[in-house]
C-alpha cells in the first residue's frame, strides 16, 4: 500500500505502501494523519470509487471480473475536492492528478510483477508504466507509489541521481528494471536517501520471519519536496506481510473549502492567561467533556484485541501476534454481522410501522455508499481518455458511428406478412363515484403529495 499526506502550510505530506480492509485502513490512516494512500493487491474487479470513514478510494482492477491483483489510490475528504483527473489503466497501474498551489501533481500507484514472473511480463509492465507517465503533463510533480518487488542495492555506480547513499539488499532482475526506469525518468527513490534503523527500513517480512527486505518504494521527481521516508511499524493491518511506508512531502494542496456561514470561533490564545486557564479548568471539572461518539461498527472488545495484536507485533512475539490477528478477524466479522442484522431489524420495524423516512435511511446504510463508475474511456485505437473534452469528443464519435449506418443492400421480403390488429379504443367515459372511492381506498399512505398538494391520507379521510 502506498500513500501521501498533503496538507496546508504547517502540516506536511506523507506517503504509504501496503494492503488492508477499507474501514480499518481508514482508521489507521486517520490516526497517522495520512492524506493520500496507494494500495496494491486490492483484488477488486473493474474500476470505480467508494468512500469509507473520511476517505475516497479510486480503484483499478481486472476488466474480466477476476479478483486478482489490482491497485487503488485513497484521498482524504479534505483533499478530495483537489482531484481533477482519475485514470484507471489496468490491474497493475492507475493515476490520479491533483491541483496544488503552484500547479499540478500526478500520483501513480503500481504493483510490479514478482521476481518469479517471466521477463517479458516485467518488460511489458515497465513499458506500459512509461506510456502512462508520457501522458502526464511535463510540468506535473510526479510521485510513483509502488510495490516494485525489487531491492535497490547498495552500490550507486551509474545510478547516483536516483539511488541515495542508504540503499539496501542484493540486486536481481527486478532491481535493474526498477533502477533503469527511475534513471530514465529522473525519479528519486525516497527511502534510499535517509539513514534509518532497520526496524524503520524493512517493508516486507517473510511468513517465517527470517527474511526482511525493502521492496516497496516511493519515487519522486524532485528531492526538494521530500523531507523524510520511513516504515511505521505501529500501523496494524491484517492479512498482509508488508509494512506501512510513509514519506513526508512538503507540498501545499489547494483545497476548495466550503463556507459554512456563521460558526463558533474559539480563541484558544486566551488560555495563556492564568485566570482564564483556571476558570476553564474549573468549568471542565464541573461540567465535564462531551464524550466522542465511536464511529463504525467495531466493538470495544475488538479495539482492545487490535491494540493487543499491535503490542505483540512490536514486541517481536510472532506466535502471539498471529493468534491475536486470527481472533481479531473473527471479532471483526462478528461485529459486522451484528451491525448489519441491527440495521435490517430497524428497517423491518420501521416498515411495519409505516415509518418510511428512518426505514430508507437505514436501507441507505446497508447498500453501497457510492456507485461504481469508471473515470476514463478508451478511444477507437485503444488509448485512455480521462479529460472531459476528450471524453465528449469520443462519445460524439461513437454515437455518430451508430447513426451513420449504411442502408441494407437487399430488399426486404414482405410477402405473406399479416397486418397487426389495431389496439382497442380507450374508454373515455368519466369514472363513477364508486370507482373513484375504490381508487382512493387503494392509495398507499406515507407518499408525497402530487401537484394538488393533497396527501393520500387526507383524501381517504373524506370518505
From TrEMBL:
Q: Which residues form the Endonuclease/exonuclease/phosphatase domain?
A: 19-234
| One Pfam family of this chain | Exo_endo_phos
Q: What is this protein called?
A: Craniofacial development protein 2
Q: Which PANTHER family match?
A: BUCENTAUR RELATED (PTHR23227), CRANIOFACIAL DEVELOPMENT PROTEIN 2 (PTHR23227:SF85)
Top-level taxon? Eukaryota
One Gene Ontology term of the molecular function aspect = catalytic activity
Amino acid at each position: 500500500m502506498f500513500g501521501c499526506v498533503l496538507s496546508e502550510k504547517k502540516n506536511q505530506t506523507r506517503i504509504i505502501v501496503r494492503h488492508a480492509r477499507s474501514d480499518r485502513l481508514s482508521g489507521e490512516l486517520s490516526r497517522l494523519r495520512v492524506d493520500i494512500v496507494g494500495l496494491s493487491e486490492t483484488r477488486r474487479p473493474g474500476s470505480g470509487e467508494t468512500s469509507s470513514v473520511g476517505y475516497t478510494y479510486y480503484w483499478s482492477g481486472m476488466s474480466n471480473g477476476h479478483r486478482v491483483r489490482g491497485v487503488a489510490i485513497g484521498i482524504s475528504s479534505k483533499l478530495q475536492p483537489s482531484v481533477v483527473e482519475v485514470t484507471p489503466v489496468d490491474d497493475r497501474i492507475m493515476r490520479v492528478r491533483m491541483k496544488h498551489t503552484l500547479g499540478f501533481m500526478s500520483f501513480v500507484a503500481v504493483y510490479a510483477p514478482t521476481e518469479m514472473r517471466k521477463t517479458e511480463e516485467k518488460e511489458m509492465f515497465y513499458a506500459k508504466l512509461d506510456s502512462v507517465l508520457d501522458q502526464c503533463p511535463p510540468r506535473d510533480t510526479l510521485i510513483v507509489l509502488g510495490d516494485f518487488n525489487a531491492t535497490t542495492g547498495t552500490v550507486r555506480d551509474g545510478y547516483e541521481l536516483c539511488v541515495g547513499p542508504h540503499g539496501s539488499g542484493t540486486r536481481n532482475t527486478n532491481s535493474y528494471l526498477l533502477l533503469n526506469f527511475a534513471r530514465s525518468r529522473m525519479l528519486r527513490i525516497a527511502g534510499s536517501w535517509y539513514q534509518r534503523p532497520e526496524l524503520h527500513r524493512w517493508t516486507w517480512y517473510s511468513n517465517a520471519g527470517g527474511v526482511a527486505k525493502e521492496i516497496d518504494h516511493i519515487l519522486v521527481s524532485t528531492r526538494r519536496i521530500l523531507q523524510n521516508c520511513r516504515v511505521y511499524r505501529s500501523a496494524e493491518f491484517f492479512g498482509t506481510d508488508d509494512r506501512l511506508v510513509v514519506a513526508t512531502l512538503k507540498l501545499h494542496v489547494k483545497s476548495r473549502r466550503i463556507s459554512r456561514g456563521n460558526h463558533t470561533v474559539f480563541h484558544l490564545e486566551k488560555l495563556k492567561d492564568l485566570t482564564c486557564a483556571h476558570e476553564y479548568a474549573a468549568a471542565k471539572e464541573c461540567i465535564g467533556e462531551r464524550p466522542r461518539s465511536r464511529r463504525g461498527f467495531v466493538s470495544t472488545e475488538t479495539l482492545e484485541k487490535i491494540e493487543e495484536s499491535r503490542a505483540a507485533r512490536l514486541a517481536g512475539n510472532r506466535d502471539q501476534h498471529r493468534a491475536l490477528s486470527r481472533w481479531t478477524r473473527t471479532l471483526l466479522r462478528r461485529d459486522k454481522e451484528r451491525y448489519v442484522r441491527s440495521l435490517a431489524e430497524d428497517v423491518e420495524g420501521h416498515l411495519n410501522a409505516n415509518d418510511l423516512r428512518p426505514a430508507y435511511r437505514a436501507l441507505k446504510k446497508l447498500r453501497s455508499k457510492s456507485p461504481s463508475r469508471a473515470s476514463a474511456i478508451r478511444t477507437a485505437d485503444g488509448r485512455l481518455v480521462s479529460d472531459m473534452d476528450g471524453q465528449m469528443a469520443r462519445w460524439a464519435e461513437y454515437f455518430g458511428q451508430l447513426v451513420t449506418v449504411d442502408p441494407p443492400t437487399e430488399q426486404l421480403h414482405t410477402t405473406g406478412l399479416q397486418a397487426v390488429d389495431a389496439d382497442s379504443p380507450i374508454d373515455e367515459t368519466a369514472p363513477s363515484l364508486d370507482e373513484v372511492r375504490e381508487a382512493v381506498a387503494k392509495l398507499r399512505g406515507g407518499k408525497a403529495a402530487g401537484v394538488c398538494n393533497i396527501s393520500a391520507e387526507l383524501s381517504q379521510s373524506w370518505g
